[in-house]
Write a structure and sequence with these properties.
This protein is 32% helix and 20% strand. The protein has 387 residues and is α/β, with parallel strands linked by helices. It folds into 2 domains: 262 residues, Alkaline Phosphatase, subunit A, CATH 3.40.720; 106 residues, Phosphopentomutase (Alpha-Beta Plaits, 2-Layer Sandwich).
Length: 387
């Protein structure tokens, strides 16, 4: 039995990528920003070598890191969740996914309204919490659907659960996914249910993402096709449109994701457990909440010892990210940053992996560990880390 636990700390960037200026992200550094908070504690990540990574200027450094450590820059165009996860899984996106700074075209909105039988409210880039403050009462009264976007390639639909039940909202998202094709093929259609009364609306934890299918073969496809287990935790199933996944565990928060990881560690399976912890991005990065982000990283750091102590002899833990979302940045958008790679296991050599282009080095490493054929231009790290 061989198991790899791949945990993505959603948006945990560690410094501006070489091309950050092209994305208006010069100087972005999620890790550095949250490290200044009094709530930041990352002793276990430090021991793994997080602060020893190229370009990370945080002290103290680990004298003898217990994990292999390095950083990766993104080759894909863009800085969104889907693009980042796809590249981790081995797909480089040469063209950025479409964004809508002025709202969606009239023909898209008209088709959506006709097929759902509901009017559309807003149709602008908006903060998810602010949009329900400004349009929630009208949505509750009219039964319309709040459609909004952001700097990312997303079509988001918000509706009060008393007016639009969850399954109906999810069906509206599927309708939107069917409309948004070709040049309008946004990365994700996102269900954003909310509840409450005017002046005190709150989003529920029942968000669902409806993503494009990956345009090529991913490491998930290869592993599941070779008979290995591919267990998806959090929004991984949504990001890959369910493809290459043998089992899904849906979670709504970091705590639920970490709890699921602990439970899966007790199970017998042979393959990959791919976990996304979303709160860093969703609750803190996009809301410019430095202290909240720092506290969430501290909670993940506190989770690590109990997890690693119960890993089996052949188990491997890979910790990484998919992009940045610097909570001290001038905007609330994702930031183009390097991502960390920490690889830990009883049989892993704790070496300095240096700096490399292409998040796909992670996919190649996983492929080589499981001895499956996976075509990529990356060399991966298996040759350096396996004892």
């Amino acid at each position: 039995m061989k198991r790899i636990f791949l945990i993505v700390l959603d948006s945990f960037g560690i410094g501006a990528a070489p091309d950050a200026g092209s994305y208006s992200d010069t100087g972005a550094n999620t890790l550095e920003s949250i490290s200044k908070s009094d709530l930041f504690c990352a002793d276990n990540l430090m021991d793994m070598g997080l602060f020893n990574i190229d370009g990370v200027d945080i002290s103290p450094k680990a004298q003898s890191p217990v994990a292999a450590y390095g950083r990766l820059s993104e080759k894909s165009a863009g800085k969104d969740t889907t693009t980042g996860h796809w590249e981790i899984a081995g797909i480089i996106s040469k063209d950025p996914m479409p964004t809508y700074p002025d709202g969606f075209p009239d023909d898209i909105i008209q088709q959506f309204s006709e097929q759902t039988g509901r009017k559309v409210l807003c149709n602008k880039p908006y903060s998810g919490t602010e949009v329900i403050k400004d349009y929630g009462a009208e949505q509750l009264e009219s039964g319309g659907l709040i459609v909004y976007t952001s700097a990312d390639s997303v079509f988001q639909i918000a509706a009060h659960t008393d007016v639009v039940p969850l399954e109906q909202l999810y069906e509206y998202c599927r309708i939107a996914r069917g409309i948004l094709t070709g040049k309008n093929a946004v990365s994700r259609v996102i269900a954003r249910p909310f509840t409450g009364t005017p002046g005190s609306f709150v989003r529920t934890a029942d968000r669902r993402d409806f993503s494009l299918e990956p345009p090529g073969v991913t490491i998930l496809d290869v592993l599941s096709g070779a008979g290995f287990d591919v267990i998806a935790v959090g929004k991984i199933t949504d990001i890959f449109a369910g493809r290459g996944i043998t089992r899904s565990v849906f979670t709504h928060s970091n705590n639920e994701g970490m709890s699921a990881a602990r439970e899966l560690l007790k199970e017998q399976f042979d393959g990959l457990c791919f976990i996304n912890l979303v709160d860093f991005d969703m609750l803190y990065g996009h809301r410019n909440d430095v202290d909240g982000y720092a506290k969430a990283i501290s909670e993940f750091d506190a989770f690590l010892p109990g997890f690693t102590e119960n890993m089996l002899e052949d188990d491997i833990l890979i910790i990484t990210a998919d992009h940045g979302c610097d909570p001290a940045d001038k905007s609330t958008d994702h930031t183009r940053e390097y991502i960390p790679v920490l690889i830990y296991g009883k049989k892993i050599r704790p070496v300095d992996l240096k700096t490399h282009a292409d998040f796909g080095n992670i996919a190649k490493t996983i492929a080589d560990i499981f001895n499956v054929d996976f075509e990529t231009q990356c060399e991966g790290f298996a040759g350096q880390i396996l004892s």
